[in-house]
Amino acid sequence: MGGGVRYIGVAERRARLGLRHRLAGEARAQGPADVAQSLVALHGSDPATVYLAVGARLTDPAKTVAETERVLYEDRALVRMHGMRHTVFVFPAELTAVVHASTGLTVAARERAALIKHMASAGAPDAAWLAEVEESTLAALARRGQATAAELAEDEPRLREQFVYAAGKSYEGTHSVSTRLLRVLGVEGKVVRGRPLGSWLSTQFRWAVAPEHPELEVAEAQADLLRHWLAACGPATEADLKWWTGWRVTEVRRALTAIGAQAVSLDEGTGYVVDGDVGPVAGPAEPWAALLPGLDPTAMGWQARDWYLAPELRPSLFDRSGNVGPTVWWNGRVVGGWAQRPDGEIVWRFLEDLGGSERREADAAVAVEAERLRRWLGPARVTPRFRTPVERELGS
User: Fold this and answer.
1) pLDDT tens digits for 232-241?
2) Which of 23, 118, 292, 391 is the most exposed place for a label (fewest CB within 10 A)?
3) What is the sign, positive or negative, of the torsion defined by CA atoms of 234, 33, 45, 365?
């Protein structure tokens, strides 16, 4: 591109990633809230990802579990809720209203309409009946503070009722009212995930009434979310932004204009940064390594990933649905995968040929990270929810 538009190359993008995503040694955070604010959102589809993503970025990872549980369930500085692309994330509490207005409202309308349609096609009660159950369920949840679906069904038995979804189709299934209704209430911002039933690795959560937040105008919220994300992840292309947010391209362009985003030149074409972020960024003072979990927000942050992940590595590191597994990072790029064995040992494999002295330096740095991870995990054993070829092989 001409006209004075600055080119930002791969080396500088990797430098930004190492510093802004709290991965370089000098950039590590003091607590989970700092990590979440730096990344905007932590993937929450796999509960372990939240803790592993935090631990990889803390100066003292021994505090990972206790501090993350505190900010999630006591201070409520972080909130687990549905967000972009109907995915569960953990957000800083101050962004919940922004996420709800910018991405949740559209998904919520679609989910409620689908639930009513599916219930009607199955001959289940109508929308008025569902509204009664919803009101009763929210009242019960307010009384209890936090509760599982089964506990709520003790107060509102109609939650136990079931209906057949897609009768006669290959994907026919039976859904309970509680499963579908709580999901809808989640994307509508009326309920959020509470404490898990078991340890921090548990996939079964209680529900809680969502904290009150202001209702924002959609375009304003989209601009705010985009500003936060570009500050953490810029430069990025329109395609990256459309993929990450789940918005239409017209919404992405409107938000870019609203925040005065500045265009830069990337290997993929035109990219964008927040206003004032065009200038050069010095890299980390020292080389760095990181062991990031499956679905880590850095590994999943962009649609176009060639600048940090060689295409030939993807079949080994992703499952068939496009979910990334545990990755080994060296100076801003993915170079391999890792796993935890049943005895707790952290093992890894380089998939990229680093060669010579760089390989020795990287191997030593990864060994340090593996030992840090092994120590704070202690007796916990982590199996990713979405398993990949390298992780399965190494973890056996």
Assistant:
1) 999 999 999 9
2) 118
3) positive
